[in-house]
Structure formats: structure tokens, C-alpha cells
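Many introductory courses stop at the sequence. We go one step further.
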Amino acid sequence: QVQLVESGGGLVQAGGSLRLSCAASGSSYSIKMLGWYRQAPGKQRELVASITSGNSTNYADSVKGRFTISRDNTKNTVYLQMNSLKPEDTAVYYCRAEATNYRSTYGYWGQGTQVTVSS
């Protein structure tokens, strides 16, 4: 099992910035991928950004150039720096980890953190 603890959400005005953190713990599995998803009311959960253990990144088109994902492998922590926030970025943001024991890969979710951007 992998436990994910998120922090850093909150209320910010449009154009502002927030930094989300997610710390993974509790497993000897190798964490292949860490990522952030979000879910706005009435919408499906969507990928925001992800980063592999080799630091390859992937971003949703809607956040490219504004959000930056990074990870500290020594701390098993992933960060999401969100700049130039827009009201449409308002959502619950979930951390996700994909971990492997080299036989199977397992997915884990954090509890979510609310990000609200006011206009």
C-alpha cells in the first residue's frame, strides 16, 4: 500500500499562484509515476500533469505554460506549481501514484485538496 498526503490547496484570486505537495509513503514498491488530477463539480476527473521516475513530464493542454510538475525522489514527493490561475482551474485536485513490485503495477489516490480561484 502507498499512502498519499496532499497539501497546499486553498482560495486564490485569478492570476495568483498556489503550490500543491503530495508525499508518498508506506510501501517498498517502486513508484513509477506521480501525477495530479482534478475534478470540478459535474465533470469527470482529468489528468493535469504527471511525472515519471525518469522525470518525463506530461501536461494537459489547458495548463501548459502555467503549471509545472516536479518531484523529489529522495522524499517521494511530487509538487505542482500553479501560476496564472484561472477560475476554470477551480476543482478538487487529487494526487495519484503508480507503483510496481515488478510483477504488477498498482494505482493509488490521495484524499484530494480543494483549489478555488475567484474572479
